[in-house]
Amino acid sequence: MFKNIVLLCTILVNTHGVPQYNNEYWAGRWFPHSASETDQNPLVLSKKSHSHDHGIIMGKEDSSCDDAKTNLAIDWFMNKANFTCLDDKKLFLPQSIVHPIHTVEHIPAAYSAAHKCMNESIEYTESIPTFGTHRPLWAVYGEYTFVPKQRWIHNLEHGAVVMLYHPCANKNQVKLLKSIVKSCLYKHVITPHSELSYDRPLALVTWGHRLEMSKVSTSVAVEFIKKYALNGPEKTTKDGQYSWMLEERSKIVSDLDDTNLCPVYSNINMK
């Protein structure tokens, strides 16, 4: 089903410009920053240390760091543009001639994303990040009026699928994609995201993967979820703690582990 998708693969280089393909060892010098940027990531020598190098304990509500209630505006600036259409909706109409783009980012197995408390801002170089520094407390699974990427990236790390749509995107297309995601797995987060483009105002994101779309293809969306959901480096079914602007909690599809992904679309063959 992906034969019509443009595949863009990120090749990472170290400080000497040499491509790196070692998925076990990561010296903390070439990923995820370029040689010109200051490297602030912890040194990781093996996958065994992965669960101990965040620096700040995940999932622990702490008013001095992150309680999912205090200083939340630092991540989304109380801006209605995050979830309100302020542009011409005609610019975002679905186009059959605009093919989906599936972007793959190589993330070393030893990489461990840092946690930052709410007294520090977190910025990303990508408009739709698939990994990176995030908040210690992740979002409750479900659909939101708006949830910032500093939260849902943590959900990606736990194997979730995050559905993004521009506030101006076609409502029927948004409704269709929501239906697919909700019927495919429990571990999902749905939120508007104003940084999506005119041409592709819809997206599905997992750890290291993003699928940007102009028009929803059920088969392409389902195949993406079946292939790339649940692939985050941290395996936990524990729900999140952040629930501000949550509209609807996720419902269990097969079980908490999402053992059977997209069961209502079992007739769609994987390729």
Describe what this molecule looks like in 3D.
There is one protein chain. The protein is globular and about 50 Å long. It contains four helices and eight strands. By secondary structure, it is of the alpha/beta class. The N terminus is likely disordered. An eight-stranded mixed beta sheet has the order 1-2-7-6-4-5-3-8. Helix 3 runs parallel beside helix 4. The chain has one domain.
What topology does this entry show?
Blueprint: E1 6-10, H1 73-76, E2 101-105, E3 142-144, H2 149-157, E4 161-165, H3 171-184, E5 188-192, E6 202-206, E7 209-213, H4 218-228, E8 246-249
Parallel strand pairs: 1-2, 3-5, 4-5
Antiparallel strand pairs: 2-7, 3-8, 4-6, 6-7
- N/C terminus separation: 7 Å
Q: Any idea what the radius of gyration is?
A: 18 Å
Helical fraction equals 10-25%
Q: Averaged pLDDT, please?
A: 83
Give the biggest beta sheet. Answer: 8 strands, mixed
Instruction: Enumerate the spans where pLDDT stays under 50 for 5 or more consecutive residues.
Output: 1-24, 43-53
Structural class, by secondary structure, is alpha/beta
The dominant shape is globular
Task: Work out the count of structural domains.
Answer: 1
* Helix-strand pattern: EHEEHEHEEEHE
Percent range for β-strand residues: 5-15%
Which strand order spans the largest sheet, edge to edge or round the barrel?
1-2-7-6-4-5-3-8
Concise account of the structure shown:
With 271 residues, this protein is of the alpha/beta class.
Distinctive features:
8-stranded mixed sheet, disordered N terminus, single chain, 271 residues
